[in-house]
């Protein structure tokens, strides 16, 4: 889920009253702290208030599952992750203290070795914590990913250079790799916007586990391939699952390229507020689309 700060004016009176009442009862933030809307979707709404992030959802089961996942993960890894401090199951609401750091997507210089170590730590811990969590299964086939990518390309091609468009078309002209039947616990949206770092580029947290699911490991490794490069992706993938086969490398590159197109479309949708996504896309294009499938 892409997250971006919107405006305080987007917080409705009912939202404001609910957050104020939560703050009074929990004492996690002060009555004078002004809430800010982070995202509002069909089922999920996220606010920032004081030092906390508050998420509400109409899907009560999904909220229970995410709270359980985050609570378990916080005990299993040394990498900071959001830790719920408030959970109202009957209202589909939970809150956690904001993690310090800046999203990696805002940094041009990236300490890849440090980030790799942190990702290996947190993803390994996540898999080990799986028996006490409940994750949905995400079997979205690669054929659908490919069809989505073709549609996305049509919407963004006017923003690409002639050479970029040629390489993207060459990728889309190929058949997608077979969907993997073996599925493993994944963050499932492990982009640079969800990796927090300090001023030295050291990881201070991994956030937004809302889309976590049992799915193909190429999803997470593909995001790493896009944002940190092929060497980092191979390093993390090898630490988790052993040396990747040619078929696995093909699936990783496939998902990296599909995710790249997603981010370009997202950035173009509001280039003023989503500039980091576009900057990241232009910076990572060459290694993401280098070589064949």
Automatic annotation (TrEMBL):
UniProt protein name: Aminoglycoside phosphotransferase family protein
InterPro entries (UniProt xref): AGP_Transferase, Aminoglycoside_PTrfase, Kinase-like_dom_sf
PANTHER family documented for this protein: AMINOGLYCOSIDE PHOSPHOTRANSFERASE-RELATED-RELATED (PTHR21310)
Domain Aminoglycoside phosphotransferase: 37-230
Coiled coil start-end: none
SUPFAM superfamilies in the record: Protein kinase-like (PK-like)
């Amino acid at each position: 889920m892409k997250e971006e700060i919107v405006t305080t004016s987007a917080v409705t009176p009912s939202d404001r009253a609910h957050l104020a009442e939560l703050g009074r009862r929990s004492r996690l933030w002060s009555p004078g702290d002004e809430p800010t809307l982070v995202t509002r979707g069909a089922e999920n709404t996220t606010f920032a208030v004081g030092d906390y992030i508050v998420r509400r959802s109409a899907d009560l089961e999904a909220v229970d599952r995410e709270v359980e996942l985050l609570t378990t993960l916080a005990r299993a890894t040394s990498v900071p992750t959001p830790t719920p401090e408030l959970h109202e199951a009957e209202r589909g609401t939970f809150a956690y203290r904001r993690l310090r750091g800046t999203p990696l997507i805002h940094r041009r210089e990236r300490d890849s070795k440090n980030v790799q170590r942190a990702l290996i730590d947190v993803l390994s811990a996540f898999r080990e914590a799986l028996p006490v969590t409940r994750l949905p299964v995400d079997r979205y086939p690669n054929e659908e990913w490919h069809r989505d990518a073709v549609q996305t390309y049509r919407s963004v091609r006017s923003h690409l250079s002639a050479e970029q468009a040629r390489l993207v078309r060459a990728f889309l002209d190929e058949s997608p790799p077979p969907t993997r039947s073996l599925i493993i616990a994944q963050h499932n949206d492990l982009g640079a916007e969800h990796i927090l770092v300090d001023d030295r580029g050291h990881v201070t947290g991994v956030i937004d586990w809302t889309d976590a699911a049992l799915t193909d490991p190429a999803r997470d490794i593909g995001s790493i391939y896009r944002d940190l490069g092929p060497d980092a992706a191979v390093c993390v993938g090898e630490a988790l699952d052993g040396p990747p086969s040619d078929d696995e490398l093909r699936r990783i590159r496939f998902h990296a390229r599909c995710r790249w197109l997603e981010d370009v479309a997202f950035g173009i949708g509001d280039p003023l507020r989503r500039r980091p996504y576009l900057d990241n896309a232009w910076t990572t294009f060459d290694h993401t689309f280098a070589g064949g499938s």
